[in-house]
Amino acid sequence: xxxxxxxxxxxxxxxxxxxxxxxxxxxxxxxxxxxxxxxxxxxxxxxxxxxxxxxxxxxxxxxxxxxxxxxxxxxxxxxxxxxxxxxxxxxxxxxxxxxxxxxxxxxxxxxxxxxxxxxxxxxxxxxxxxxxxxxxxxxxxxxxxxxxxxxxxxxxxxxxxxxxxxxxxxxxxxxxxxxxxxxxxxxxxxxxxxxxxxxxxxxxxxxxxxxxxxxxxxxxxxxxxxxxxxxxxxxxxxxxxxxxxxxxxxxxxxxxxxxxxxxxxxxxxxxxxxxxxxxxxxxxxxxxxxxxxxxxxxxxxxxxxxxxxxxxxxxxxxxxxxxxxxxxxxxxxxxxxxxxxxxxxxxxxxxxxxxxxxxxxxxxxxxxxxxxxxxxxxxxxxxxxxxxxxxxxxxxxxxxxxxxxxxxxxxxxxxxx
Length: 417
Description:
β13 (about 365-370) and β14 (about 375-380) form a beta hairpin. It contains 11 helices and 16 strands. The mean pLDDT is about 80. The longest helix has about 45 residues, at about 270-315. The two termini are about 65 Å apart. The chain is of the alpha/beta class.
């Protein structure tokens, strides 16, 4: 499984050629079958702003607030720019906002869609760190056109390599003490400009007094290929697919759920959890099958017992539905013998008479012989405790009594089997 990555060109001509990169699932962050669009670093500008409270869950208000706050920092009109906020930003605290030309981005996404590629995620080629106080740097380009990208306490900026090193040196010299200079800083560099970056770092290290040089000597250059840079960019929490470029409705939730699932299903760190879950599911399946087998055996035993009782009691009856046939045969015997059953009014009246407290009288009685026999009584004035005792006494005599308002509904519960 792999993730397909398209690098967007800086121009927006129709029929533009898109550089394609395929990253293995593990390298891309365990997100299978996704298509990413990489926005070149040169197409983005970065700004730190603080947003007011209460905008996290209101996308329309957040977009308008961003445009209002970005009027001064942007050279173009905010409406012409696509603005993206860092994930999990906190209200009233500075957060990063990425800005790029909206028409340029829309053109390339439409071109890719026309080619049959629906972009799931828009990833910046380079983004400032969202960790407070962390410094990052990158040297890009060619030997003839090398650029320095820096994210530090002053913000995120880029300058030609030599001018950038000079500007950065001046910034660092203005610090109060050498302890304010970051130590063990790794400056990433494209392979084409790795030697230039190394020479520029040596110059930076050699033009400072001993106190500062000790910190600068811990800095080093790390050569990073485009594939490695894309993988690192994908691992970051940045996604410029926001507002009008975001997937809508359930599609967005499905994408997020798919990413979480792929992370759980493929990531090496989750392997013990996957094995544990598999063993748990297997144990549950075995346990359910054993329980179902035992339950089926008990049900079969009960049915065989019912059939045995029916055939022993009524040998001439062909068994079809043992419980129902037994109840009918018992009812027939009771009718033939003249015995009173729970379906008969005499049984109900006798049971009610013995269960009622002294001094109670019935104002209305309605009896229906269908089914198990149903008797409705009105006029009783019982306390809550008496109601409970009345129903309990009738239940012991095979009658179910239910109170609805001022009316009692009494039916037979003993089927005789």
